[in-house]
Amino acid sequence: MSDYIAPLRDMQFILKELAGLDAIGQLPGCEEASPDLVDAILEEAGKFGAGVLAPINQQGDVQGCTFDNGKVNCPDGWQEAYDQFRESGWIGLSLPPEFGGQGLPKLVSTPVWEMWVSTNMAFSMLPQLNVGQAEALLTAASDELKQTYLHKVVSGEWGSTMNLTEPQAGSDLAATRTRAEPRADGSYRLFGQKIFISYGEHEITENIVHLVLARLPDAPAGVKGISLFVVPKYLVNPDGSLGARNDVRCISIEHKMGIHGSPTCTMSYGDEGGAIGHLVGEPNRGLEYMFIMMNEARFGVGVQGLGLAERAYQQALAYARERVQGRNAVTGESGQPIVHHPDVKRMLLTMKARILAMRSLLYTAAGWFDQAHHSTDQAAADKYRRFIDLLMPIAKGWSTEVGNDVCDDAIQVFGGMGFVEETGIAQPFRDARIITIYEGTTGIQANDLVGRKILRENGATLREVLVDIRAVAAELRADSELAALGAVLEADASDLEASLDWLLANGRERLDQVLAGAVPFLHQLGTVCGSWQMGRLALAARRLQAGGDASPYLAGLLSVVRVWFGQLAPQAGALARVVQNGGDAIAEGVDAAF
Amino acid sequence: MSDYIAPLRDMQFILKELAGLDAIGQLPGCEEASPDLVDAILEEAGKFGAGVLAPINQQGDVQGCTFDNGKVNCPDGWQEAYDQFRESGWIGLSLPPEFGGQGLPKLVSTPVWEMWVSTNMAFSMLPQLNVGQAEALLTAASDELKQTYLHKVVSGEWGSTMNLTEPQAGSDLAATRTRAEPRADGSYRLFGQKIFISYGEHEITENIVHLVLARLPDAPAGVKGISLFVVPKYLVNPDGSLGARNDVRCISIEHKMGIHGSPTCTMSYGDEGGAIGHLVGEPNRGLEYMFIMMNEARFGVGVQGLGLAERAYQQALAYARERVQGRNAVTGESGQPIVHHPDVKRMLLTMKARILAMRSLLYTAAGWFDQAHHSTDQAAADKYRRFIDLLMPIAKGWSTEVGNDVCDDAIQVFGGMGFVEETGIAQPFRDARIITIYEGTTGIQANDLVGRKILRENGATLREVLVDIRAVAAELRADSELAALGAVLEADASDLEASLDWLLANGRERLDQVLAGAVPFLHQLGTVCGSWQMGRLALAARRLQAGGDASPYLAGLLSVVRVWFGQLAPQAGALARVVQNGGDAIAEGVDAAF
What we know:
By secondary structure, chain A is of the alpha+beta class. Helices cover 57% and strands 11% of the residues of chain A.
């Protein structure tokens, strides 16, 4: 397997030229993010990923996790890598200095997490859970709970989990049954079973902090009766030392298609009298807190699509440059590596184009997060918040679908060797298969996009986005070299607006048709967002060229942008037809059709 | 896991109404294929697949094959299932009665093989190799070789293998190095290593007959110096009894992503003085013989795409009808199975539509085979031969790509349970990943389609196909209920013709651009072929309705056809744009772009 090489130049280009790193480094609270520090962090993260995480990735896949009478063993090397990871302070990168973090903007932590995923996705889920949990506690927990748990969670001395799913409550958390009974001292006893709990049990950290959704005795039915609890594996004494083992245990782990190094646990609460927990925030607001955190988690899963795609691309490119097979179709020469075959070149360049489109969109969105949180210009902050809310289903749903496609093409580049596990290219493909499912399937993302966002606000934010897209199209058209791309983007914007108008016109009367078109619409919007960002990439490259930069790097970027517009962008038009004309056949599909 | 239910009604409908079963049953040599016999065969095969092969499929995946010092062990149950399979005479279904077969047309054996794949693809590869080898020997072997080997291969007493690939010779067989040295008695000694040999070694049959590509000492370089040899595992005495162990052995097996029940062997020939073999046909014509057989093998791999898709669809549908989750988006009702959610319904109905399109195309093509081989109308026979030659890359390349997509969607329907191996829906997805690779990758199929077929004959056969497609479009337009579909098909035919014209206009000057568009063109042509066949399906259903058949089945078919045209057909237009405008960005992609 080829070595991982952090794509620092692409990362830095997008951070600076597209995502506004300089401006974000000047926002109040983000001053630490100086260009020099950011460069140094990215370089260090690249070294850490390549040197510590990548070498144990395939072994983690082969060895997997084992379950032995309540005890879960992670693969060899996990403990040592985690200790190094924690000691290097990576977990707290974007968390508040008050609790031991470094307080850097999301724009800086995003490429860093991309690297953890590229080099070892199964491992990266362990510290990622700490970040998600810290954000949940910061949002909703009392000062006392924060003081008890946050330092240890931010430092990584304790591990973290999120307990949402139950056998009958997957996508539909309204069906949650785990219950919490109040105790006299203000704590609670929890009873119930949770499934699909990543890193629910392991020996890597001295304690594990579970965040658990459960119902209070008097809670209303449905989603408005769910509360959030913190339940430690070992109870925490008032002085912060660890006390007795709590009544929570892992009763089995799943045998999965991928991410073998990440244990997926079934957790049982309260088999011996009740697991002691503490209410986080107010009663019955658990789902609301979870959704705040879930937006961040969904963004993180989108980054997994990018990270896996990058790694699979690097492996496929290395193989294609090495593997000699066949003759050059044009010159007839033999003895050439397969990267020169037109179809292999097509696969690799379209992989690269999709990666740059995803990275541009995700880093740009990370910048929106930081602007929304830190900008002193309230109007700007509000706009960025609206953009994030609207496009989060794209960041998650579209990036994970595209990430899967890229990993699939990587296997195809390897040919027969791609099907052989030793090559290592099957692993990102298998690992990637979960990302369109967890934290809300693509279907859930699409329903969220169309139902909760676009229909509810009558398409207002998407029209704002369309204004920005059309501005990029106009800039492209003004550049004779890019004018053809501008025309494509302009047409795509019109197709997108037509789909939007169709959704709005039919959202009430034909909701079933509209929702049958939700996933195609997600793909259409994702593709147009890709074209929008690739257009911005082209404009940035041309600006630098106009300023005298004649580096081949810029020519390379422009070449990839042309591949995007020639090969990927055309999908948007077909998807518009499916959105607008394809839903009725689904809605009217008769029982005998199945 | 849900039980397999043979889709007999769909199969019979397509056989009779689309693929011309009645007409083929009247061709000379095909008279056995009476409607009653065909129905009985399909029913028996469905029972055999469901009762014998399906029950050992998941176990075969979990257990896999093991290699122990030259010996290969197949999963538990393989031996018993094979013995029953062989004794039931399934191997010889379409092979000549002269050697013990039943001599039935390919149109009849095609749905039967679809069922073997649906119920146990890894197992089905074992008897499928016998069929392929029998066809190769029938094509090229001397009477003596035929008498020695064919009876045992057709009966299945002996197993079969095809030995093409070497480490340096994958897609490019010109690089074959295995050599054959003549011996005084007219036989040869073979020396070399072959990789990726399915069922290269096992204990299931008393002997294994290897067909091996190798070079004679005086052979010209490249593809014109490759000969075909038969090399038995145990030498065969003049009286037909088994003699000494030959100098061929398995030295390792691959650890693969899927088809775990099918051992993939590295075979070493001649480590101890040379493996004894016999030349098949004439010297240096081995590749030609292999290509005759490979056309049949490629068709068989296309059927694998269909068979896996059918099985994955059945499992997903059963799960979606059982799994209760969420509320109905339109009525607000809870407690409904997920099949009623618009996006799940969309996934299932588009799966079904793709399956019917593949099945219609593959069975229709099987009918062309039979017509080409048996028709006494020479002009008709020639036309069908041209159609098969042109569309074989679609039957293989497009059906395998679509089969993968359907298996992917099946996992998505299962949500989180789809990623858990015990559910069984990961298996068809993993098994399917090889089918776009072996017997020529999708890229190889597309190069064959564009380079060897369309450019070489200046698009003549594709224009004949377009005439037939437009005739179907005209028929659809003449039916007020189907007129809109006819308009789509008409437009798709024009887009296809535009792509064809573009390929022909640029084939000489811009071959690199043209070949960069070969896979998108394969998808475009495949999609239009799907629309063509779905249009025929609709016309057949309407004919029966006009004749007074008011069954819900016909309404169901028409419903699925509308799903095809609303959801799948629109891709063709986008692909036309990629073919015609996307190749230059690939051809001109600069090194710095990677």
